[in-house]
Amino acid sequence: MQAFEYVAPRSLDEATHVLAHVGAEARCLGGGTDLIAQMREGRRSARVVVDIKRIPELDALKFDPIHGLTLGAAVPCSRIHSHGAVAAAFPGLIDAVSLIGGIAIQNRASLGGNICTASPAGDSLPALLVHNAHVLLASAQGTRRLPLSAFFVGPGKTVLRPDELVVQIELPAPPAGFGAAYLRFTPRNEMDIAVVGVGAAVVLENGLITQARVALGAVAPTPILVPEAAEALVGKAPSPEVFADAAAAAQRAAQPITDMRGTAEQRRHLVGVLTWRALQRAVERARVSQLPQPTAQ
Amino acid sequence: MSTRVPVTATINNEDVTFLCEPRQSLLEVLREELGLTGAKEGCNNGNCGACAVIMNGALVNSCLVLGVEAHGATITTIEGIAPREGLHPLQQKFIEHAALQCGVCTPGFIVAARALLDKNPNPTEHEVRFWLAGNLCRCTGYDKIVRAVLDAAATLRAQAASAAGDEVQ
């Protein structure tokens, strides 16, 4: 691997100061599961590697049933899926972080890294989109907060400036009657990259879907939300016909390509199947969330 | 113009200080600076698990950790698995079940299995297979490895039960 300098700032100010001075030649290191592999292969280079794991805000996971979830950009996947209250409230996110790599990868890989790598196939991306995630970015100039849907520009490209870093990912507390799911298709169950990934989230009130979000991965240059699929669902009772309409809308929104993982035709087919199944699972979870919860003795 | 950085860590219960370049992975440091050659370089990109070590209680691929990141960490490698004398039950059961052929993947499998049994002393076959999905073996077909891990888990549970019984008496 090419030589670089390593710094491990202890505060956000210190980190943004380094980024302001080094700019495009700096790379932030979270779990390193993408960055170290890519630097070794020569796909990315850095003069300075900024280890962000010792910055308190980036290493914090905060959950509150009213305000929702704040995930520090460097928090590894395993800390997210082993948190019982988070797992119960954000089932789509948990589906995704339990699928990324194997255990050794989940113990290091962070969602800050997953969104900054900005692979169209990144598993957490559609899940975060259906959980209505926002990102907080910081630089020496200040901070800005934007919806995750406005973060991605293209494969490997985001709106993050060279002097900025992702501080945290924020997910609002789910309302009553909420359910979500993330499903992907891979030739192998684990340690594989999605041929297609689909996230779905619904809110059920009195038997009707009152809110819905559907997001697709690996079928466009960035992960995409499909508002047309949501429109096909809102105001309706869940049924095979309604799921079929939403799945057809998702297929129309997909712009898949043919590559080593699958053909465009296969991907478009998978978008339909996975959208249907993800919606079915999200609705089942929404119904379970409405059942009276057992109280602790 | 890369300078070597001093790093202090606890490796296999020993306090160790070493110098490393920031670009060296923990795997390179273990093998080339510290002479701990049990962890193997397979894919060097996080897919095969041959370099697995336990860092601060968590299973990680040492090829995807920088040596400098180990500063202040507690690390267990395959060299730290066996007791002072004899073998760890996982090692013993890998021999009994013939759970290895060429042996390159074996240190990674044993370290990964140890991390599993530390967390879950009574895993199902399904749980063992999922946990070990990040370790590749091109010889055994995995079945013997899974049986060895389940058998070692049973041995460790029996040892724990007998130790608890001794304490009661």
Detailed description of the structure:
The complex is a heterodimer of chains A (297) and B (169). Chain A has 297 residues and is α+β, with helices and mostly antiparallel strands. Among the domains of chain A are: 1-50, Uridine Diphospho-n-acetylenolpyruvylglucosamine Reductase, domain 2 (2-Layer Sandwich), CATH 3.30.43.10; 178-289, CO dehydrogenase flavoprotein, C-terminal domain (Enolase-like, domain 1, 2-Layer Sandwich). Chain A has helices at residues 12-22, 35-40, 77-81, 84-89, 91-97, 103-106, 111-117, 124-130, 227-233, 240-253, 264-290, and strands at 5-7, 26-29, 48-51, 61-64, 68-72, 134-139, 142-147, 152-154, 157-158, 165-171, 178-185, 196-205, 208-217, 224-225. In chain A, strand 4 and strand 5 (68-72) form a beta hairpin. Chain A is globular. The termini of chain A are far apart. Chain B is α+β, with helices and mostly antiparallel strands. Chain B has two domains: 5-80, Beta-grasp domain (Ubiquitin-like (UB roll), Roll), CATH 3.10.20; 89-168, DNA polymerase, domain 1 (Orthogonal Bundle). Chain B contains five helices and five strands. Chain B has helices spanning 26-33, 89-96, 106-119, 125-131, 143-168, and strands spanning 5-11, 14-20, 52-55, 58-61, 74-76. In chain B, strands 2-1-5-3-4 form a five-stranded mixed β-sheet, sandwiched between helices. The relative contact order of chain B is 0.14. The chains are: A alpha+beta (297), B alpha+beta (169).
